[in-house]
Amino acid sequence: MANNMSVAEGQKQFIVVKIGSEQYGIDISYVDNIVRMQKITRVPKAQSYFKGIINLRGEIVPVMSIRTKMDLEPDVFTDVTRIIILKLEEHGVLGLIVDEVKEVVTLGPDEIDKVAYDAKNSKSNFINGVGKHGEELISLFDTNSIIDESENA
Amino acid sequence: MDVSQYLEIFIDETNGHLQNLSDCIMSLEKEPENMDTINEIFRAAHSLKGMAGTMGFKRMQRLTHDMENVFQEVRSGNMNVTSGLVDVLFQCLDAIDAYLENVKESSDEGTEDNEAIIQELNDILAAGTGNAPKTEEKPVPKEEKDPVENRFQKKYLDIDFSEKEKEELRVSEEKGMKLYGITVYIQEDCLLKAARAFLVFKAVEDFGNILVYSPSSQDIEDEKFGFDFSFYVASEAELDRMLEVAKAVSEIEEVIGEKVNYKELTAAAAKKEEEEAAAAKEAEKAQKEEHAGAAQAPAAAAQAKPQAPAAKKQNGGKPVTNRTVRVDIEKLDALMNQVSELIIAKNSLVSIGSTSDGGSSSNSQAFHEQIEYLERITTGLHESVMKVRMVPIESVVQKFPRMIRDLSKKLDKKMELYMTGEDTELDRTVVDQIGDPLQHLLRNSADHGLENAELRRKRGKPETGSIHLNAFQEGNNVIIEVSDDGNGIDTESVKSKAIERGLITPEQGAVLSQKEIIDFLFMPSFSMAKQISDVSGRGVGLDVVKSNIEALGGDVEVKSVLGEGSKFIVRLPLTLAIIQALMVEVRHEKYAISLGSIETIEEIMADEIKFVQAKEVIHIRGMVIPLIRLDQLLDCEPAEEEKESLTVIIVRKGDKFAGLIVDELNGQQEIVIKSLGKYINNSTKIISGATVLGDGEVALILDVNTLF
After folding, report:
1. Catalytic pick from B17, B46, B291, B382?
2. Looking at the domain that runs over B4-129, which CATH code has it been given?
């Protein structure tokens, strides 16, 4: 899918989501599915940023609150809240709760700025670039660091 | 020559022969005079040699050949079985095993010549028989060359042609090809008949096309034939050349054939049909006997021979084996997943059925009947699929007697292994992984458990130590016990070791229970051995055993009496995927508890709860059972007020009990276990998985074994 015909060489597609007041981009090649908010079953003793698990057509999918992981205020579920299902090789599937899904954008290499790694700011550790789409700025998630075990609570 | 497709059969059969050899040599060591065992070994070695030769594994062939030589001499009474010989034989087996491992990995036997072993074999042979070692010696293995000519009949004349085959024969003849009928007899001790047949076909096909097979080529490939097969070939070459190449394939006893023509064949076939319709069986038999005498009888006469005797011979020739199919475990997993989905779907129907009261009552009656029907089918299907995946643990434990024998020599202790319940069945994936832990426990018993002979005598125990391996089924679990009558675990010395290593303070040590002390043995790199031997003592062991078994959803328990012996009890789940569970609710969260571990369910009054050592217990039917409040354990919101009456589920692990307090019971259900995945930290292991309920909701599965 990454080599979609409409995507020119070096370009990447991102799903733009809203978390709090910021816009974030998730590399579309990792996205398996987007589902509506549903009942999440709490798992006792799990990491605090794991809201629990959901049933996705018979599959058990763990759901993570990216807000908790990034030290933001807790999720408020509305009717535009969605769960982005990420499919990561080797690690299986994982759900991320986002406030809203906006659109899909295509960014070329010159539209993405790398961000400097700041070890003190755990929040920026999840971002590996900032995309410029028209007037708007989109923080691009580093998918692999999201699933990293380190607890930032 | 392409023999790769027979590689799997070869590996399988070689394994079987190796195991057989190992068992036989073990018993030979005990009764060196037993002729039956010696013959059995000879046969197995001979078969191994033959198979290795077929597959082109020259080194393996050479080794087995020399083994066979030795047994040839033993069999004919020229030499005796000594313990030295047995040792060398075991070395041979290990060497063959190594070849086999190489074959498994790379389809090649490797380059190890094992000259030393061969030399030793030959030395023994020389010493035993008083001859100088003869390298060229070849005790011709059972060459029963008293050729009863008329055993070889022209069976190709008996073939019934289908219309298509007739057509093919006719067309080929019209093209100017010569038609030959050929029957091939394979030696009766041949092991890979299908491979032989394949080689013959391959050789013949260099000359022309094989038009008709009897039995069908599929049957030949599946080894569904006796020791002969026939075929018709259309070729431009001469018959003799073809017979020659066919005979050149090893283990082919005889090849007979002649030139035929289409007209005669079909005429004969037609005639045969008539005769079959008319002639009585008696007459046919007589004719057959007549025919059997005359090797060159005319084709037409041969056609009268009834098919029945030939068929009978085929049945008799093939050893009666279970009809089996090899199935990739992945296919079974896929099947299992689908059955799981089906059960989930069925559960949703059940839940719709129980909630919806719409529709007329007769409709709902029919609906319920159908659901019950569906339930029976899915349960049956599930059981069948599970059974397919079940294999006896025999395949794992059968190598243990040999291992104990070797350990006995190495450690210079006399010991005997007694095994029961080898036919206990477990899920294939469990069986595959249980070998190493069990092996470790046995080594542990042999090395640490059993005392040396002197100490045993002093303690008034029989000099030969005994190790027992018992397997049996208990409810939804399979229990495998490894016990010995050795020293037992010295808890005091374990305790001081733990203190010495700074794991606990002496004060803490004073209050530890025996079980808690024994648990130290399962800690990583905690070894009690004073000396590191290559058998054990490196401290890599019991912790691995424990984690391996826990990974399979089981657990290990130890019982030990100092001076009398210890017993390791391995408990494994019978099935991995689907269990019967009791559904409970705790603060409106749903949990499943495996029925296998539930003993009883009790309603108790809040004031019945007593305190022992500041822990809540109940006293019920003479037992004091500790209580666990699931809501606290699972970090639920605290309840507003304590209820008067509490529902307590009494669960059991071995001989320990615990009472779980839950809010609500939701009945029993068949659930499909799904993993939580790797992301969620589940170090406490209280939650062993999740399951999808009929209404799509997710419930967590509690592993009560972790609560003890």
Report:
1. B46
2. 1.20.120.160
